Known about the structure:
Elements: H1 11-18, H2 21-35, E1 40-41, H3 49-53, E2 61-65, H4 90-102, H5 115-120, E3 122-126, E4 131-132, H6 144-158, E5 163-167, H7 168-172, E6 184-188, H8 205-215
Parallel strand pairs: 2-3, 2-5, 5-6
Antiparallel strand pairs: 1-4
Amino acid sequence: MLQTLIPKSWQPFLQSEGKKPYCQHIYAYLNAELNAGKTIYPTEAERYSAYQLTPPDQVKVVILGQDPYHGPNQANGLAFSVHHGIKVPPSLRNIYQELSTDIEGFTPPVHGSLINWAKQGVFLLNTSLSVEAAKAASHAHIGWQQLTDETIRMINQNCEHVVFILWGSHAQKKRALIDESKHCVIASVHPSPLSAYRGFFGSRPFSKANAYLIEHGKTPIDWADLS
């Protein structure tokens, strides 16, 4: 873990978790894979981008993804996000489509970078932080789930009035980690083309999230700010 890339506000948590056996196993596994010539996404420098861009005291919304994109130059450490210049993935296109009907004035951008959301307090967390090239979910069982579960528990315990947006059955399994008496959970099917028409479209998660934030005295997310 590149501690120099992690904001000081996350360092106590990540350093504490990093000493535990499951994290040591993750690091050993990744090193062995790299030494064997495997390609792993995202790069180590971007693996903790969600933490890097959204310190815990600024978290307003948590959007959970599953594992990083496994194609070249796609994964950038933020759930559902890709770098400028990379084709917008299908699930993100559907997210943009829902935004267009949910948030007045939203025009889908030509890129898929969600960095500006992260900077506003949207914690875009994948439940696995790495993946082998061209092998979806290949690192789903190496220990990342424990780190991301502990991250959700940390936010649940230490933050107030956070909106957790859980798309699909994988993300909704994390609902048990969230105290819904102090936070808001918005759940629906996944925005994937395989399921979006079964309840994602029309679910209005973005306006619902902002309504909750405003109700609790927080500045809403400018979902259209994706320059």
